[in-house]
């Protein structure tokens, strides 16, 4: 029999995420900064042809996957699509078998499924921050996302 850990026993991590796309669709990148105590870990990745929304989802998904054990997470995003999707809309999508209220297929459903599964490992509070407003964590994540696009375009 395993005991469920108390929330207070879980390590605390703050994650700042952002997605970027040049053209929509077009070359895209995602960036994230994981912060725990004095430790910081930047993450980034890219896709040759994608959308900004997919990159926002990838930033959150890849950040959570990076955590080796369950954590208390404060996740900051400038994407209402991401924040509202995972905290509000997903419940209806699950009830309707990944269909919207108007019965259309949910866009990026495979990423939403993966993200939803990943959220079960952690205690996450989702925060929204206005993009490009000088918030240091968001600015760093945006920089990482754009570096990823630059690396893609440079052939790195």
Brief characterization of the structure:
Its EC number is 3.1.26.4. With 156 residues, the protein is α/β, with parallel strands linked by helices.
Describe, in plain words, how this protein is organized in 3D.
One of its GO terms (molecular function) is magnesium ion binding. It holds the Pfam family RNase_H. It catalyses: Endonucleolytic cleavage to 5'-phosphomonoester. Keywords: Cytoplasm, Endonuclease, Hydrolase, Magnesium, Metal-binding, Nuclease. Its EC number is 3.1.26.4. The longest helix is centred in the C-terminal third of the chain and has 19 residues. A hairpin with a 4-residue loop joins strand 1 and strand 2. Helix 1 packs parallel to helix 3. It contains four helices and five strands; from the N terminus they run E-E-E-H-E-H-H-E-H. The radius of gyration is 16 Å and the shape is globular. It has 156 residues and is α/β, with parallel strands linked by helices. A five-stranded mixed β-sheet has the order 3-2-1-4-5. The chain has a single domain, classed as Ribonuclease H-like superfamily/Ribonuclease H (Nucleotidyltransferase, domain 5, 2-Layer Sandwich).
Report strand order across the widest sheet: 3-2-1-4-5
Architecture (CATH level 2) name: 2-Layer Sandwich
Rg computed from alpha carbons, rounded to a whole number of angstroms = 16 Å
Order of helices and strands: EEEHEHHEH
> What low-confidence regions span 5 or more consecutive residues with pLDDT below 50?
1-5
Structural class by SSE content: alpha/beta
Helix count equals 4
Count the beta strands. Answer: 5
Q: Please, what is the CATH homologous superfamily?
A: Ribonuclease H-like superfamily/Ribonuclease H
């Amino acid at each position: 029999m395993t005991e469920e850990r108390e929330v207070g026993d879980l390590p605390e991590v703050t994650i700042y995420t952002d997605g970027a796309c040049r053209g929509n669709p077009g070359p895209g990148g995602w960036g994230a900064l994981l912060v725990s105590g004095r430790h910081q870990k930047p993450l980034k990745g890219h896709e040759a042809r994608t959308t900004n929304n997919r990159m926002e989802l990838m930033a959150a998904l890849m950040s959570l996957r990076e955590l080796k054990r369950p954590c208390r997470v404060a996740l900051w995003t400038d994407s209402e699509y991401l924040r509202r999707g995972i905290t509000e809309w997903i419940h209806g999508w699950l009830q309707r078998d990944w269909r919207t209220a108007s019965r259309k297929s949910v866009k990026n459903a495979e990423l939403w499924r993966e993200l939803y599964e990943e959220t079960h490992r952690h205690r996450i509070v989702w925060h929204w921050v206005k993009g490009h407003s000088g918030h240091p964590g968001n600015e760093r994540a945006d920089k990482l996302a754009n570096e990823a696009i630059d690396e893609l375009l440079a052939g790195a």
